[in-house]
Amino acid sequence: MIFNRELSLVYDASGRSLTEFLIQINDDKPGILAALSNAYADHGINIINISYNRNQKMIHIIADISESDIGMGDLENLLRKFSFVANVVEKPLENDSHLVPSLSLPTFWGKRIVAIDMALLTHISEVISGVLFEMGKLDKLRLGPSFSPQLLKLVQLRGLARVEIFMIGSTIRARLCNEDGLDLAMSYLKGLLLEIPHRVNERKNGEACIELELTKSQ
Q1: In the chain, at which end, N or C, are there fewer CB atoms within 10 A of the end residue's CB?
Q2: pTM over 0.85
């Protein structure tokens, strides 16, 4: 998870150079986003995602710097010259596919998603389980053959369970919890991890959490 925030947009960055910016502002006034957007555009930088948390006065930007005519250090100094900017933190993103944080409505692959009350799904559970299995397979296909522990965060992004990931040597352990039940999450995981060796630890009936184990080499 980038900067430890929830994820709500998936972007394929294959062959591109992405950088994430956190910009703390000291004053909320009209024209701030326009000024920042122009600064990026003037140097050939394409903004992929931009969001603004008004309560924290924090602007979050994901930008494609592949065609930039300015170095990141120079860009950071340029942004700091704006009177409304209090601080700038920038972080290069290194993976070919990125789960991109956003404060906007959640999307997958450029398409809006709809949140459905899980209680409404119980009457068509067999159909939904099949859909979630195929959804897991499709999400893994879209993210490519390589495996990252962060792939498991898609379970949380899909609204199926909260996910905690722990690295213990070469072992990846994940704890998935949902007090409303984990059957739907398990259907999705079967598709997501279809070709990835893993083990699900047994849980007692009614327990709200499960644990997974995978090897880091996968």
Answers
A1: C
A2: no
